[in-house]
Amino acid sequence: MTDSELKLLIKQTETLELNAEEKSKAKGSFIDLPSGFTHYEMKGSGEAVVLCHGYATPYYIYDKIFEKLVAEGYKVIRYDLLGRGLSERTNAVYDPAFFAKQLDELTKALLGDEKFYLFGTSMGGSITTAFCKLYPGRVKKLVLLAPAGMDTFIPPFYMKLATIPLIGKLIFAIVAKKSLLTKCASELKYSVDEKDYYMRSFAESSKYKGFIRCTLSSLKNTILNTSETVKGYIAVNEQKLPLLVIWGTEDKTMPYYQHKRLLEVCPDVELVTFEGSGHIFLFDEGDRTNEIILPFLKK
């Protein structure tokens, strides 16, 4: 990607309204839920699998997982969290309960009472465990990929800045407009030839107004709210829900040291360590990830 294209993509951040005309151009489907209209894709047949993405990158982060699961005979749903992707930028507190409510509404609308396998990556770990806590009995097995939510997480300085009253919002708005896009693919290590696709796809969703407001709320109320998010993991353990966690040792976004706390909270977890992998290995190393996921679902 040239410097001029990158500058143009950054300049386009939050310039458009996510209206009916824009939605008509999109791939995938939309559904009106009580919590807000949601962009999703459902494909395949068989047992249901639901894929929940993380903090800012929309559902395309699951490209390689999604297609493989469909090919293996699963009915797979991936969706954009409210406030990012092509889902509604609602005025709300973007905490785990809010996201769990969206997930509950979506799965009931598309699957009825059918139980399903649930995946969460990064902040999706906090969301999916909250869902299991608030809506028990819906999930067959839980798969988490480099998950957020541990109360041992030490936030970097830039995250702390965002929490400063009044001025934090201003700082975040200035910094995030550029940094979220320029750093979204920074942990790609093996799929660098796909970096441009990854960044362009990210920019496609960040151009709609409300993105910065919603990601800031998610940072303050979910990512940094670890005293609350860890309760979801405790609930998963108490429910004895089969849990697989994959984590990369070179993760710079949700560092690997948190796995020690995970083992304390969820001692029965099946923890798989990817030596040398970064935060977005599910996209960066799709085949390697699928080799671990599929046997867990089938056994």
What does this structure look like?
The protein has 299 residues and is an alpha/beta fold. The chain is 45% helix and 14% strand. The chain has 13 helices and eight strands. Strand 7 (243-248), helix 11 (259-265) and strand 8 form a beta-alpha-beta unit. The chain starts with a helix and ends with a helix. The mean pLDDT is 96.
Main sheet attributes: strand count, strand direction, barrel closure: 8 strands, mixed
Shape: globular
- Fraction in helix: 40-55%
Low-confidence parts, pLDDT < 50 over ≥5 residues?
A: none
Q: What's this model, at a glance?
A:
It is built from 13 helices and 8 strands.
Topology:
Layout: H1 3-11, H2 20-24, E1 29-31, E2 38-43, E3 48-52, H3 63-71, E4 75-79, H4 96-111, E5 116-121, H5 123-134, E6 139-145, H6 157-161, H7 167-182, H8 195-206, H9 211-223, H10 226-238, E7 243-248, H11 259-265, E8 270-274, H12 281-284, H13 286-298
Parallel strand pairs: 3-4, 3-5, 5-6, 6-7, 7-8
Antiparallel strand pairs: 1-2, 2-4
Helix pairs in contact: 1-7, 3-13, 4-5, 5-10
Features:
alpha/beta; 299 residues; 45% helix; 13 helices
